[in-house]
């Protein structure tokens, strides 16, 4: 059942509803992505190209295809949506038509959930930081968490998602590396104290077993350009190695 503008009221698909509770709506989206990550990875005909643009493109195509087949018809997944200052994100979750979440109407031009995707490890490049999941080189703002903190991505969103393609080492290895870098930025007073000790990532159980790691974190933001002083982030890490 595809949502369209001819309906007298907007719908979510599954479950069919016109007014959605925000936390449940967000959870439904993230759980859908979580379920589809290992399915996408294990597709025998998936191009075995391991660079980020190709990974993002095939993942986005898979999510759109799966959402239609599963009657998850309230949202669509857009590759490289425009963010603030003409920057582009990796994937944006957008309404497919009009939906209502806790009394607020969203149309198909609004971003419901911004998604950044990163490889672990960061590919070696003189223009990139060594832990680009967190931050990039000074003045470049290429880090995933960094972009959300500075309001460069999802400035009006209060939630965000980061997907990691783990191509080497273990989940525990990357959790230690990322949390150590977050702690160092806080200790050094980077970005005029924008980084705080309470911003560490914490693990959560995934329904997809050992191939997916689910984590959560909360980060302080610059206001403006961000519309909120903090952003809640979820992290889905997929084992690719």
Question: How would you briefly describe this protein structure?
Answer:
With 241 residues, this protein is an alpha+beta fold.
Q: Which helices and strands appear, and what pairs or packs with what?
A:
Elements: H1 22-41, H2 52-69, E1 75-79, E2 91-95, E3 99-101, E4 104-106, E5 113-120, H3 144-149, E6 159-166, H4 171-188, H5 190-193, E7 202-204, E8 212-220, E9 230-239
Parallel strand pairs: 5-6, 6-9
Antiparallel strand pairs: 1-2, 2-5, 3-4, 7-8, 8-9
Helix content: 25-40%
Number of strands: 9
Average predicted confidence as pLDDT: 87
Number of helices: 5
Alpha carbon gyration radius: 18 Å
The portion of residues forming beta strands comes to: 15-25%
Q: Show unreliable segments.
A: 1-18
Structural class: alpha+beta
Determine the N-to-C terminus distance: 37 Å
Give helix and strand order, one letter per element, not per position.
Answer: HHEEEEEHEHHEEE
The biggest sheet amounts to: 7 strands, mixed
| Approximate shape | globular
Output the strand order for the largest sheet: 1-2-5-6-9-8-7
């Amino acid at each position: 059942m595809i949502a369209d503008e001819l309906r007298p009221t907007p719908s979510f698909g599954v479950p069919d509803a016109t007014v959605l509770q925000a936390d449940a709506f967000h959870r439904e989206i993230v759980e859908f992505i979580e379920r589809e990550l290992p399915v996408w990875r294990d597709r025998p005909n998936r191009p075995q190209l391991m660079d980020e643009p190709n990974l993002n493109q095939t993942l986005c195509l898979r999510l759109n295809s799966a959402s239609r087949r599963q009657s998850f018809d309230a949202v669509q997944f857009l590759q490289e949506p425009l963010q603030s200052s003409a920057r582009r994100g990796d994937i944006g979750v957008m309404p497919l038509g009009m939906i209502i979440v806790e009394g607020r109407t969203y149309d198909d031009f609004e971003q419901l959930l911004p998604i950044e995707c990163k490889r672990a490890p960061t590919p070696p490049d003189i223009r990139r930081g060594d832990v680009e999941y967190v931050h990039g080189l000074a003045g470049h703002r290429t880090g995933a968490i960094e972009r959300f903190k500075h309001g460069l991505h999802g400035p009006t969103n209060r939630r965000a998602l980061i997907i990691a393609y783990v191509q080497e080492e273990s989940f525990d290895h990357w959790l230690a590396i990322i949390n150590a870098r977050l702690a160092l930025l806080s200790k050094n007073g980077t970005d005029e104290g924008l980084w705080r000790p309470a911003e560490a990532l914490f693990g959560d159980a995934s329904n997809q077993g050992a191939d997916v790691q689910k984590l959560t974190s909360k980060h302080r933001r610059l206001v403006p350009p961000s519309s909120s002083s903090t952003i809640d982030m979820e992290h889905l890490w997929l084992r690719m190695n």
